[in-house]
Design brief:
mainly beta, five-stranded mixed sheet, 31% strand, Fusion Protein Consisting Of Minor Coat Protein, Glycine Rich Linker, Tola, And A His Tag, Chain: A, Domain 2
Length: 341
């Protein structure tokens, strides 16, 4: 069904920079003045963002809103250093007088980024919209909108982020892998097997949620996510074992969730070496290891206890002793050592 004013399907009316926060509200008769005011998520005529400059007159309401809300984003220095990027979603309402109210964070990235998003979003309180109408009457409409935090490096400049911040690595291009089944006896000829252990960040405050490390295959330009702490397991350290396509791998991001009263709070932490003084190779900015087809390698213990300070320990003897009874079909004593460096 298409919207009568825009010709767009209702489901994508505000898709891109402004999203309606729910399905279309049911058509209801205008309530009497004494009734409690109704809040809508979709109306016959949606609120219109004002023209703030002559050049904006050729833009749609959505485009004007997007330009305004993304024009004053100040990247928190620590978040920029940590490579934290993504979208913060916030909610707000436009009342029957066209005023913006009740601005809140709906889904954030982390505290410093969320605080900046809220500061920027509160600029809307000075904006006077043309209010939305339902059955010819001005009504209150609620929205959920994203605010983008993007890292845009200048290639070749000193201090520029490394190549893993390019768009190609910002999503999982290879399906998430299943861990290696200990009962399997034959290694795949087109993959290499890696095993190790992860010391996780949160312990019991993880709420039994899984944790992941995203790896970037520098040989193929693709990334993959492996589970380093299974769900429903809150112990500090967990072993992992995966079959990966051959190539040079760089640790890219550590992904974990903090259990809150309102649900899991997602976190992504860039895994990188201390920032170099000049633009160097990926091996100078990331922790890298190699996977060889048909071979088994120990990648050691990955310790993410300290924020932005991962440690990688070559404790193959300990891991072999602990994991050999589980992976009885693997000759772990013959495995190569491939700790990220």
């Amino acid at each position: 069904m298409r919207h009568p004013a825009t010709g767009l399907p209702g489901a994508i009316l505000l898709f891109a920079s402004l999203l309606a926060s729910g399905a279309a509200a049911a058509q209801t008769p205008t309530p009497p003045d004494s009734a409690r005011a109704q809040t809508y998520t979709y109306t016959e005529k949606m609120p219109v963002f004002p023209v703030l400059a002559p050049a904006d007159s050729a833009l749609s309401s959505v485009q004007r809103f997007s330009r305004f809300i993304n024009a004053d984003v100040h990247y928190p220095p620590r978040a920029l250093r940590d490579g934290i990027a993504g979208k913060v979603y916030f909610t707000f309402t436009v009342n029957a007088e066209g005023r913006t109210q009740d601005i809140r964070i709906a889904k954030g990235l982390r505290d410093d980024v969320d605080a900046e998003a809220l500061r920027n979003a509160r600029r809307l309180e000075a904006i006077r919209w043309e209010p939305g109408t339902q059955n010819g009457r001005a009504v209150t409409v609620t929205f959920t909108a994203p605010m983008s935090f993007r890292i845009n490096p200048t290639p070749g400049q000193p201090g520029s982020p490394d190549s893993l911040l390019a768009p190609g690595f910002n999503k999982v291009l290879v399906p998430a892998l299943n861990s290696w089944d200990p009962s399997r006896r034959i290694l795949p000829t087109d993959k290499g097997l890696v095993y190790g252990s992860c010391v996780q960040r949160l312990g019991f405050s993880s709420g039994g949620l899984a944790q992941y490390v995203r790896l970037a295959n520098l040989s193929t330009g693709k990334s993959v996510r492996i589970e380093v702490k299974p769900a429903m397991r809150s112990r500090k350290e967990s072993a992992f074992c995966y079959a990966l396509p051959p190539g040079r791998y760089a640790l890219y991001r550590y992904e974990f969730s903090l259990s809150k009263w309102y649900g899991p709070e997602m976190h992504q932490e860039d895994i990188a070496k201390p920032a170099p003084t000049a633009r160097l190779s990926t091996a100078d900015t990331r922790y890298v290891f190699t996977v060889a087809a048909g071979q088994v390698a120990c990648v050691g213990t990955w310790d993410f206890t300290q924020e932005n300070a991962p440690a990688f320990v070559a404790d193959k003897a300990r891991l072999d002793a602990e994991l050999q009874p589980i992976f009885k079909n693997l000759a772990l004593q013959n495995a190569a050592l491939a700790v990220p460096r």
